[in-house]
TrEMBL record:
It comes from Tepidamorphus gemmatus. Transmembrane segments: none annotated. One of its GO terms (cellular component) is cytoplasm. This is Small ribosomal subunit protein uS14. One of its GO terms (molecular function) is structural constituent of ribosome. It comes from the Bacteria. NCBIfam families: PRK08881.1 (NF006477). The keyword rRNA-binding applies. Binds 16S rRNA, required for the assembly of 30S particles and may also be responsible for determining the conformation of the 16S rRNA at the A site. One of its GO terms (biological process) is translation. Keywords: Ribonucleoprotein, Ribosomal protein, RNA-binding, rRNA-binding. Belongs to the universal ribosomal protein uS14 family. The gene is rpsN. Part of the 30S ribosomal subunit. Contacts proteins S3 and S10. The keyword Cytoplasm does not apply.
Length: 101
């Protein structure tokens, strides 16, 4: 199980990303629009830099829904490999069969 503080920090980041997604998108569009003047684009970049760092989507860490583990994460299932194996062994994931040879 991951530290609760790390899990909560990531949850706060997810909330901030959702909150600032529209504003960040509009400013990025202005900053990347080459038909506008250099000053307008520069002002948009300054406003973009003034937004909270944790409102950037790249700062979110994919974590297991069960354990909070940040490594060996399967995006499709939102689980780590360890949680996937445990739940699969218990028969809680439909269609998943433990291999044996």
């Amino acid at each position: 199980m991951a530290k609760k503080s790390a899990i909560e920090k990531n949850r706060r980041r997810v909330k901030l990303v959702k909150k600032f997604a529209g504003k960040r998108g509009r400013l990025a569009a202005i900053a990347n629009d080459e038909s506008l003047s250099m000053e307008e684009r520069f002002q948009a970049r300054l406003k973009l830099a003034a937004l909270p760092r944790n409102s950037s989507k790249t700062r979110i860490r994919n974590r297991c829904e069960v354990t909070g583990r940040p490594r060996a994460f399967y995006r499709k299932l939102k689980l780590s490999r360890i949680a996937l194996r445990e739940l699969g062994s218990k028969g809680l994931i439909p269609g998943l069969v433990k291999s044996s040879w």
